[in-house]
């Protein structure tokens, strides 16, 4: 290939010299023979002079035309490589803009020389002009500014920096965590830093959630970003000849390959026939094939037909609409495992009007597994909190069950005596009936005497009334025991994530039943319910929310007070309030009440998980929970969740 290129360059560079050489020989021959011919044909000196002038003029015109054509041809040949270079740079910039990766070129003082729009967004600005020439420290969080300056200096000394995490702050004060991988390119005073960066807000949020709820569990979120390879700066070489242009084009192609191979996400480009024309190393590793084996092939050559049909359909949608397309898909990776991916596809049209799809893949398999593990850990934490609450209320619940059990037992003991009286009376009347049947006068008189003695000894009307009263009291006591046990079973039931449409008031009353023994000695319950408000929720989880709120309200009341329960509706939201007349909370305490393990109760009294779990449960139901408190006057907690059908 090199020899062919040199040969074509040699032919192209020397063709004008050949033409000039041939033209010179023809001109000399023309001048020599034409003069002799004119002398023979024209004898008149005046006529010979005019012919000579015409001949000279014609020679000048032909020579000028030839020079113009040669110069025009050379200029066109020089312009072609420059156009190709510009097209290559456009492709590079288009690919950089679609990677969702920030790109910045900076000098040794940290001043921005160039950047893409993703980096402008990370810096909290709207236009590239807002950051050009300014130091990156300006939009770095105050606590990271000194470290950022040190890292820039280290980067220019060592030549690179990998895995650097900094916080950026926009003009509104919003903090965005960003990961940087940078390299230094160039030599001497013209050295520049080139960095690829990525918004790691989601990754940091996942890590924070895992550390908050799993604690001793191993972190399951897989690494989202790999270290980016060294990249080159903008091409600053002035192109003076065809050879230099070719070298620049080759360097530009190499530069593009290195950039896409440094990106941690799989990247591909397909032509209009859905064939891969560009791939990065991460994509090849994901599908388990070499670049050479994949280029020119389509999805049907690699994946099962069911998967390839989906990919083909989504590609066609992008080609047809020219709109960006983001989809969650499943495919069989090179290791044979089914992976969950999110693919972003966008259209790219080159200078010749050819359409291509540029695609970026994000492997979500491990993230989804981590989220599932996090949900499992949360359910375990919720169940543990339920058991802790039951343990805290166990003495009161036992007392609530013991009272009706006691008078049921006493009533049964008294019923046994009354039943004995009734059995005696029934026996006497049975003897009287048998004597009448047999006609035995003596036995009948003896039976009558026994009946009279029993009637004089006992008040049968009072006995029967006592029996009915004791049966009714025992039935009420057993019903109370059943209600308490049912409420406890519902509260302690392991959450299966099932939702039902239930009455909001019934959910709150179930929580009151569980905590009633604690309530009746310290507080009076005031109810202000709006009838007919129904919600679609997990009853066990919402029951736990209100148990936690009632327990907190009781803890806030020193001796005697009032707890008010309210329900109402705001547009499409069902609202419930638990308000107490307790000690209230200061602003700094209110700001932290939903933090896990934060509690103002003494050691052994509370775990600090009640309100945190309640907050998460309400959010999972698509609602919100708010707290309003005034020290010395009390606290109000309002739960709002979407209303169910039939409200």
Structure description:
The protein is an alpha+beta fold and 647 residues long. It has 16 helices and 17 strands. The chain has helices at 2-41, 45-97, 117-122, 142-158, 201-213, 242-262, 281-287, 291-294, 305-321, 365-438, 441-457, 460-492, 504-519, 539-556, 587-590, 610-620; strands spanning 102-106, 112-115, 160-169, 175-185, 192-199, 267-270, 276-279, 325-332, 338-349, 355-363, 500-503, 523-528, 534-537, 561-570, 573-580, 624-630, 634-642. Strand 14 (561-570) and strand 15 (573-580) form a beta hairpin. The chain is elongated, with a radius of gyration of 46 Å. It starts with a helix and ends in a 5-residue tail after the last strand.
Write a compact overview of the structure shown:
The chain is of the alpha+beta class and 647 residues long. It is built from 16 helices and 17 strands.
Q: Which parts are unreliable, with pLDDT below 50 for 5 consecutive residues or more?
A: 1-12
Placed side by side, the strands forming the largest sheet appear as 2-1-5-4-3
Please state the average pLDDT score. 76
Number of helices: 16
Helix content range: 40-55%
- What Rg, in angstroms, do the CA atoms define? 46 Å
């Amino acid at each position: 290939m090199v020899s062919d290129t040199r040969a074509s360059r040699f032919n192209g560079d020397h063709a004008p010299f050949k033409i000039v050489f041939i033209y010179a020989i023809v001109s000399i021959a023309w001048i020599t023979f034409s003069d002799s011919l004119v002398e023979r044909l024209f004898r008149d000196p005046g006529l010979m002079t005019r012919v000579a002038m015409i001949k000279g003029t014609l020679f000048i015109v032909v020579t000028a035309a030839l020079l113009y054509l040669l110069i025009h041809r050379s200029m066109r040949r020089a312009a072609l490589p420059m156009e190709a270079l510009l097209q290559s740079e456009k492709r590079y910039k288009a690919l950089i803009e679609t990677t969702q990766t920030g790109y910045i070129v900076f000098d040794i003082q940290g001043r921005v020389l160039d950047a893409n729009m993703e980096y402008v967004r990370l810096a909290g600005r709207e236009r590239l002009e807002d950051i050009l020439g300014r130091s990156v420290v300006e939009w770095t969080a105050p606590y990271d500014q000194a470290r950022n300056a040190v890292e820039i200096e280290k980067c220019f000394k060592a030549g690179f920096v990998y895995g650097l995490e900094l916080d950026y702050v926009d003009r509104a004060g919003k903090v965005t965590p960003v990961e940087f991988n940078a390299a230094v390119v160039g030599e001497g005073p013209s050295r520049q830093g080139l960095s690829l960066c990525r918004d790691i807000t989601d990754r940091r949020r996942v890590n924070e959630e895992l550390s908050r709820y799993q604690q001793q569990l191993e972190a399951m979120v897989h690494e989202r970003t790999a270290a980016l390879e060294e990249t080159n700066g903008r091409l600053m070489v002035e192109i003076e000849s065809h050879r230099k242009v070719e070298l620049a084009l080759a360097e530009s192609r190499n530069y593009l390959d290195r950039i896409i191979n440094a990106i941690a996400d799989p990247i591909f480009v397909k032509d209009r026939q859905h064939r891969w024309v560009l791939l990065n190393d991460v994509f090849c590793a994901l599908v388990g094939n070499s670049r050479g084996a994949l280029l020119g092939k389509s999805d049907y050559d690699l994946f099962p037909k069911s998967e390839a049909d989906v990919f083909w359909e989504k590609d066609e949608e992008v080609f047809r609409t020219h709109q960006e397309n983001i989809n969650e898909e499943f495919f069989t990776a090179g290791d044979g495992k089914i992976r969950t991916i999110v693919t972003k596809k966008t259209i790219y049209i080159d200078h010749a009007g050819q359409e291509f799809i540029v695609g970026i893949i994000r492997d979500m398999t491990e993230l989804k597994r981590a989220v599932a593990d996090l949900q499992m850990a949360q359910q375990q934490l919720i169940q543990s909190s339920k058991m802790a609450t039951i343990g805290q209320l166990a003495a009161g619940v036992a007392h609530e069950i013991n009272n009706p059990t006691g008078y049921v037992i006493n009533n049964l003991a008294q019923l046994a005596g009354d039943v004995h009286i009734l059995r005696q009376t029934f026996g006497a009347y049975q003897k009287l009936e048998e004597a009448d049947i047999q006609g035995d006068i003596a036995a009948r008189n003896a039976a009558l005497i026994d009946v009279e003695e029993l009637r004089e000894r006992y008040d049968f009307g009072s006995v029967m009334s006592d029996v009915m009263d004791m049966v009714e009291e025992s039935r009420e006591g057993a019903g109370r025991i059943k209600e308490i046990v049912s409420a406890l079973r519902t509260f302690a039931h392991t959450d299966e994530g099932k939702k039902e449409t239930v009455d909001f008031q019934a959910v709150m009353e179930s929580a009151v039943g569980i905590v009633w023994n604690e309530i009746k000695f310290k507080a009076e319950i005031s109810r202000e319910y709006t009838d007919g408000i129904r919600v679609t929720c997990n009853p066990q989880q919402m029951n736990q929310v209100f148990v936690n709120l009632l327990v907190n309200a009781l803890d806030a009341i020193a001796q005697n007070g009032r707890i008010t329960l309210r329900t109402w509706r705001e547009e499409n939201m069902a609202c419930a309030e638990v308000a107490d007349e307790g000690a209230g909370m200061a602003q700094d305490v209110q700001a932290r009440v939903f933090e896990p393990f934060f509690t103002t109760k003494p050691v052994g009294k509370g775990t600090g998980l009640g309100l945190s779990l309640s907050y998460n449960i309400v959010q999972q139901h698509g609602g919100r929970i708010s707290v309003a408190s005034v020290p010395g006057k009390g606290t109000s907690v309002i739960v709002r969740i979407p209303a169910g059908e039939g409200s």
